[in-house]
Write the structure tokens for this entry.
Amino acid sequence: MGYGQPQKYNDSMGYYRLGHAFLTPQSTTVVKLGCCGYIDDSGYWCPMVDIVNKAATTAGGYDVMDKSTLLKLPPSPVTWGPKMTETVKESRSSLTADAPVPGIPVEASLKLEFSLHADFGAVLLCKGEVTRRAYAHADPFRAWAQANAARLLTKYPAIRQHGFYVVTNTHASKDVLVNSWENGSHMVTLGFGGGVDQSANISSSTEIYGATSAAGWVKPVCKANEEMVVFFGGLKFEYRKLTGWMRGDTTKFAEKPIYRGDNIIVRDPDDEEDGLEILDSEIGQDII
């Protein structure tokens, strides 16, 4: 994945330990529990297969997941105040008639200003509930990914560069606003109505002023049956090339999988003399 704004945003939001952060939030109809996919250079989710869908795995020639090993937790709704990168400072005040702010009416009960003290900053704002959905355990998904890593690479060569993910938890909201900027002299200002006196009390009915596209705010549009995923957690898998590891030996994978420590080794489909070590890591603190 190239190091543009989407990757800067993800890295900077790692402060919250909630997993991968989307600069452009993605639909829950695409990024959902049990899905396997990768993230391209633009920061968008590219789905590969829904692991918990038997028809999808069978059609793709993958192993079928044993659903008896999975435990899905009840949805857990919470409310958030603004989530900012550590490079952004938030200050709050009341509006007065003698110091108006363009786009924010005087009757707004709270004004928030976000200022940047580094070369990149971002603010995520979710109105109303943010719902966490999760599987309780990652091991069944890890085993499936290891067993199917070679087939996935053959079908989706891009994951040699990007790696791939299995989603085991998501945080999603119906009403999302995101702003990111790199100009240290630029300040982002919002106003809030409805008697709100602190940002932690922002509900789905709170009026927000100043969150316009001209001010840099991105607001995804949700359909009736979807929310927008702002963070997902789970497992990340990457391929490490082992040059010449298979040279002169055609029997290494004849009977059983080969491991290097805890990592499984597969044959490189592009060069039968090379092996690929499958490295996995956990993202998001919800994984156990």
